Amino acid sequence: MKTTLLAALLATALIPAIAMADRLDDIKKAGVLRVAAFDGNPPFGFVDEKTHKIVGLDVDYANEVAKRLGVKLEITPTNPANRIPLLAANKVDLVFANFTITDERAKVIDFSVPYFASGQQFLAKKGTLKNPQQITSLRVGADKGTTMEATLRQKYPSAQVVLFDDTPFALAALRNGNVQAITQDGSKLVAILGALPDKDKYEIPPFSISEELEGVGVPKGETRLVAFLNDTLHDLEKTGSAQTIYDRWFGPTTKAPLPRLFKIGDAHIRAE
Amino acid sequence: MTAIAWLDRPYLLLLGHGLAVTIVLAAVCVTLALALGFALALAGRHRWGLPLTHAYTAAFRNTPLLLQLFFWYFGAMALLPEAARVWLNSPHALWPTPETLAATLGLTLYTAAYFAEDIRAGLRGVPAGQWEAALAIGLRPAQAFRFVVLPQALRISAPALIGQIMNAVKNSSLTMAIGMAELSYTSRQVESATFKTFQAFGFATLGYVLLIVLIETGWQIWRRQRPVWTR
Amino acid sequence: MDALSSWDVIKNNLPWLLWGAWPDGPLGGLALTVVLAAGSALGSAVLGLALGILLAVLRGVPRHALLGTLAFLRAIPVLMLIFWVYFLLPICLHIDVPGVWSVMCALTLISAAYLAHAVYAGIEGISKGQWEAALATGLTHWQTLRLVILPQALRMMAPSFINQWVTLIKDTSLAYIVGVGELAMVTAQVSNRVMIYPAQLFLFAGVLYFALCQGVTWAGNRVAKTAWQS
């Protein structure tokens, strides 16, 4: 009984996944677009205190895509480390979760064109982190399964990195003093800083250690779905919807205003 | 993509390191928890100590370990005065990291509640006649306890204690939630670096099974080898 | 530090902690914890009883295979089994199990593995004489098991079942790893959002778990007592 089960497991694991039907058609047929989004990372994806629904910049983009497909949007909450497993296990069709495009990831999943970009920065108590050289002497909190961790390890191998399941846990550790800094997308840190009850005690030192371009995560080999996403994203930029979405979360009237230095279709972040 | 390709050396080393952390963490917590559990069981033999032991075991056994770990790491630290927090979190020679500290504290206190109950059951299982006989042959109460009652009590509770030691090994996996770099934590790390979900989780799963089998085997060997009169 | 007291924070978030977004959205918080625990308690009672009986009647290789499977299930951490059911079953066997169900499935399997041994020990604990006497009166093996042995064995198993239920309630907290919003997860969520009073919030959740576990123990013991006194 055990051996046959094991044999079955091994056999199915060895056979490469064969794309059965086209995912784009499947989604239209099902009438539902299943999307993984963050539930604890404002302003990209978080649970709204009043409506108890997951909202945010990523969710707005997912909504636009679902609208153009003419299907219902269904959100599955995720933490960073679960994003690729969720796609691999066919639990979701797309991942809209502040998902940095990397060569390694592109080997196992596909990405749309980037719809957001920012640099990897740090949040620390005022005065603890003034220049990148100091990173090696600090305990830095990061999220499991993010590029932040990999970049940090690669560029500052002697830094002590402590990994958490999601950014809010890392932030709690920072506020406790368990770690002296946390590392994240600059845009996310600006939002986090804006929401801190004692924000005057913290700062985001003005340097970044990498550029992060973020796209939609798509199961490997779904070329038609990727093409549809790219067309949609470019169109959202052309019609101004992309700007509207950005302004809703980072515009001048928000808690975390941030100039928009990247437009869909750009190759890099514009210098300020 | 999910084809069986073995993990590269650095990732195997990382997983091996995680396994070592799991072993050390579990061993330290079991040792400390045995001492604490024993103290609680002894306290439970006195009228004033009994409510204390009861309250302790009820509180720690009726709440999830994950919540207790969150409490020690995220909650309790926030309650401490600023100066104590700074001291705890800054590096000191031979002083563990805050993650290690909270993980050890949480797992020890939780495991001790189970040890205390099992040792108490063992002590209760020794017939009163044993006490009386030991005192009758002229042993002092301390001696009677140490040489007559205790060995029998431990023999009664040994299987339950071994089971709790195994639980401690498995429960140590929860400390990954507070940033402790043990086996489950490193398996997630390797998974997200290599995307080899099957291999990374497979290694961790087999690691835990191996540890449990080792404990079981060690226990069986010890049980057979010890003198007949203690069996 | 802030105008908001810890009690205000708990009060403002109380519905979210108790039943999540229900009835407008999915059930969460304490209510989901209860559903998860009750579902896996029921599942593991049925499966544990069946496997325990199998342990008592099977012989030879099948029995060893079953023993091996049960030992394996008891050797791996619940967290790992949840990963396997949630992420690896769909990849390996193309079976998709949604979050809530995969947690329930993992908890049921592990809990049944423990209960099977309790059931088996209960059955074995009934003296051989009872079997012989019942068979002599003309009952079949199955009738003997069902009418004579199991009722007596169940009484001995009651403490194991109650213990297992408490364990199940506590283990539902591990659902956080696959994003299922039960009590531990929503507490962490609220604590992370308001960023003040983490200790008070976790203590509050602890009190809820404590009440639930103690309540189940108390009710279980009471039912067990009255059921067999009549």
From TrEMBL, chain A:
Protein name: Cystine-binding periplasmic protein
Record-level Gene Ontology MF annotations: ligand-gated monoatomic ion channel activity
Family designation: Belongs to the bacterial solute-binding protein 3 family.
Signal peptide range in chain numbering: 1-21
GO cellular component: extracellular region; membrane
Pfam family, one: SBP_bac_3
Keyword Signal: yes
Keyword Signal: yes
Domain (Ionotropic glutamate receptor C-terminal) ranges: 32-252
Keyword terms, alphabetized: Signal, Transport
Solute-binding protein family 3/N-terminal domain boundaries: 32-253
Gene Ontology biological process terms in this record: amino acid transport
InterPro entries: Bact_solute-bind_prot3, Iontro_rcpt_C, Solute-binding_3/MltF_N
TrEMBL record, chain B:
Keywords: Cell membrane, Membrane, Transmembrane, Transmembrane helix, Transport
Domain of life: Bacteria
Membrane topology term: Multi-pass membrane protein
A Pfam family assignment: BPD_transp_1
GO biological process, one term: amino acid transport
Occurrences of domain ABC transmembrane type-1 (ranges): 19-216
Stored InterPro entries: AA_ABC_transptr_permease_3TM, ArtM/GltK/GlnP/TcyL/YhdX-like, MetI-like, MetI-like_sf
Membrane-spanning intervals of the chain: 20-44, 65-88, 200-222
Primary location: membrane
Gene3D superfamilies for the chain: MetI-like
Subcellular location: Cell inner membrane; Cell membrane
PANTHER family cross-referenced by the UniProt entry: ABC TRANSPORTER PERMEASE, MEMBRANE COMPONENT OF AMINO ACID ABC TRANSPORTER
Family: Belongs to the binding-protein-dependent transport system permease family. HisMQ subfamily.
Protein name: Arginine transport system permease protein ArtQ
Gene symbol of the encoding locus: artQ
From TrEMBL, chain C:
Protein known as: Glutamate/aspartate transport system permease protein GltK
TM annotation in the entry: 27-58, 65-87, 99-120, 201-220
Underlying gene: gltK_1
Stated family: Belongs to the binding-protein-dependent transport system permease family. HisMQ subfamily.
Location(s) in or outside the cell: Cell inner membrane; Cell membrane
Membrane topology category: Multi-pass membrane protein
Domain of life: Bacteria
GO molecular function: transmembrane transporter activity
GO biological process: amino acid transport
Stretches assigned to the ABC transmembrane type-1 domain: 30-213
Gene3D superfamilies xrefs: MetI-like
Record GO cellular component, one term: ATP-binding cassette (ABC) transporter complex
Keywords annotated in UniProt: Cell membrane, Membrane, Transmembrane, Transmembrane helix, Transport
Main location: membrane
Organism: Amantichitinum ursilacus
